[in-house]
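Q: Hi! First time asking for a complex rather than a single chain. Here are the components, and I think there are two in total. Is that enough to go on?
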Amino acid sequence: MAPLLSIIDLVKEYPIKGSKSVVHAVTGVSLEIERGETLALVGESGSGKTTTGRCVLRLTEPTSGSIIYQGKDISRTSSREFRKLRRKLQLVSQNPLDSLDPRQRLGDVIAEPLKVGWHAPESQLEHRVGELLRLVNLPAEVAARYPHEVGGGVQQRVAIARSFANQPDLVVLDEPTSALDPLARADVLELLTKLQGDSAVSFLFISHDLNTVKRISSRIAVMYLGRIVELGATNTVFANPQHPYTRALLNSMLVADPSASRQSFTLRGEIPSAVKLPPGCALASRCPLATVECTKIIPPLELVGEGHTAACIKLPRWAAPDGHHDRTPGLGSDVDIASIR
Amino acid sequence: MSQLADILVVDDLHTHYSTPQGTARVLNGVSLRIRPGEVLGLVGESGAGKSVLARSILNLIDPPGRVVKGRVLFDGQDLLTCREPVLRALRGNAIGLIVPNPHLHLNPVVTIGEQIANVIRAHRDVSRHEAMAEAVRYLEKVGLPDPATQARSLPHELSGGMAQRVIIVMSLVNSPKLLLADEPSGGLDVTVQLQILELMRELVTGRQTSMLLISRDLGIVAHYCDRVAVLYAGQIIEEAPVDVFFAEARHPYSLELLRLGSPKHMNLQRLGRGDPALNPIHRPTGCPFHPRCLLAIDRCKVDMPETDVLGDHHSVRCHLARRSSFGASS
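A: Yes, that's all I need. Here is the structure of the assembled complex.
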């Protein structure tokens, strides 16, 4: 079955005012989002994960590359045509207070997307708002409250209810639980799992929090300085990370258990500037495995296991068993698959 | 147990804020102690009172806030009744403070070298030149590349991780006996967060510096603290040595934090929910956690539980803490 949505060779550069340089936010990302899956996009600040999510929703125009949805490149369709598709592609952002109008009652917040093309009587609108509140485990009374009167967990569940108003195919969740306390976060994650089970919606879950990602996602794409450096099933990547950046990221995740042992695979320094990209592998300046070769070529994503790719020239290549025709999700179009095998 | 006197004793501390909507009771009788060289982790959600506690300890609460009751003994001296010059001599000197979001707390128009030198000269009689040289030595110690040049840079020229190193230098440069670290790695990326925590550990070990380490992250508590205190709605609801906490926590809120944060506890029964969120103005009657507690009985809605000492250094505020079936794996 064709994927729900494909990102092909996405590049996004932001110009800097008064300068000829640009910020290289995304420098060539290819990804496929399957129906009903939760694909996590993880990385530190400045890795390009939010920009990727915004390009998928056409909230920002890509510099080059395509976003294919329902057979069309939605980054290039007319805005009139896109508006029809846009209802099926929704966003939930990090801070619910930024995305909820402080003067709008929560019921109106949810009703707003319903009103577009609503022909039935007003009373049914209210009924539908009640249904959506129930969907996110909130009592109908919440409709009369204002955003500041409820906690962050409730606000975020209202934002999710709104994103579900028109039966979306894909919801881009940009750090949806980062601003929440642990118990409220658990409520939201549980809710997302339930919603996906009921509706086969796909989630693009953008997060820097590996603990959360581990709990919710089926696949994970790790980004570093505008590129995907590793992609695979969440369990596989957590159990057997390949790329040095992924290894360092997982190693810096402190396990909440005093008896847990700690490995010591760490990176030096901090993420380089996205204005002056380093030559070759973007991690080379921080990577304990790096050699001179690493600064010469940009490593392509290559198979390191079944359905598991990583972009590092220091990794042994994976030879697929004979007669095995594994699909290679997310391989960049510049990669010649035959040469890997 | 250490025979040395506690470096910090907080006793029945109440801090309130008057707001147009009513009085916000942010701290409601917090008591804790820190021994010399000990790292006490303080965990709790937003609004629990963690930062207000740190500021109350330093007697830095400004109106409309007020410490209405309690004592804060530092080395036997009550900081809440001290005169301002005495406090000023202690802050930044015997007691250091590390805050999150370093860029908010650095002077944007003064070079970082001078800012560190100012902290030194505020408490020690050294020349400007000597203070600057010491600042550069410290910047080198915390891993700033090319420290002599970096000392002349302004805060905005530094990344978040580097700016936080500067804050750490400022808090430690006068060798404090007590360090209040309020989310010292908050807002930093995880790979940098680890560098900062390791650096802090390196700088305080061997000096017998005591630390109150405020964090939301049980992972940080597990690896960097000796004891842990859980703050909820302005009260310590559980306190224990780290090993005991991770093995035998009894409060439903603590167990819920463990279930959600610790791989060993993933299969615990769910004991709490996320709402209603904390509201220091309209506090529930009885146990403040009861509206979110899935185990709450009628008594929890009326009676505030007292601190119950369960064992060596392990105390809990919960009516159900001694129930045997409590919190078993499902």
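A: Residues 323-341 of chain A have pLDDT under 50 and may be disordered. Let me know if you'd like any chain examined more closely.
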